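Here is the promised in-class demo. Please do not try to memorize the tokens; focus on the logic of going from shape to residues.
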């Protein structure tokens, strides 16, 4: 998939394509109202167009990412509405039939991320954004709606499943892939070893795709 990507915008990688594969297998009905959380280049919004959605809303805190997603969807004539800001604030009060999320999940850094680091840094345990997402998704999903979420196994997929289940969703891991460390993980290797998150010679991580479904009826 060719995508315009300005400097500083997170490039689609293994996690993006793993989530695209999960979407293709998810059997989402046409006419869905879709939310793309942390859209980056808009790769997931472009993939979501294949299910013939009723509408696509994409949100990112990065202005450059928003510009890229707008351009990439426009060039493909995909009528996506791309918004800049905090996803949960920008779509408060709305519900969606499908939520796609490839959020920041890289652990190891306690400082609040700035600039392009906002695309991956997620606190010491990697759950700074994941916990917010799990708390908000049950309110954002319409009855019968589906969440597809990808993140590193280092950020505790079991906790994500438990939090979603605690919010009333049926949740489970539906995809896994072992992938080599990218530049961010390689640069953070020593810190991750110190935190006990990886072994000294480890150079791969497991990615997990988690699906959460809101019951169609209470």
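The designed amino acids, position by position:
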């Amino acid at each position: 998939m060719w995508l315009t990507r300005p400097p500083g915008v997170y490039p689609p990688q293994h996690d993006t394509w793993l989530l695209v594969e999960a979407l293709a297998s998810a059997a989402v009905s046409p006419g869905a109202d879709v939310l793309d959380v942390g859209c980056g280049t808009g790769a997931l919004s472009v993939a979501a167009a294949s299910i013939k959605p009723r509408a696509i809303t994409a949100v990112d805190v990065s202005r450059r990412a928003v510009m890229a997603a707008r351009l990439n969807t426009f060039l493909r004539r995909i009528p996506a509405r791309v918004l800049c800001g905090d996803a949960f604030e920008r779509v408060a009060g709305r519900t969606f039939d499908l939520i796609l999320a490839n959020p920041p999940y890289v652990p190891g850094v306690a400082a609040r991320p700035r600039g392009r680091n906002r695309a991956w840094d997620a606190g010491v345990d990697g759950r700074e954004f994941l916990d917010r997402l799990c708390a908000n998704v049950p309110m954002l999903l319409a009855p019968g709606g589906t969440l597809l979420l990808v993140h590193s196994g280092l950020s505790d997929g079991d906790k994500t499943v438990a939090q979603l289940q605690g919010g009333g969703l049926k949740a489970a891991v539906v995809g896994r892939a072992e992938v080599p460390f990218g530049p961010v993980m390689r640069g953070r290797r020593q810190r991750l070893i110190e935190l006990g998150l990886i072994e000294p010679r480890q150079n791969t991580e497991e990615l997990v795709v988690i699906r959460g479904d809101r019951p169609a009826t209470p």
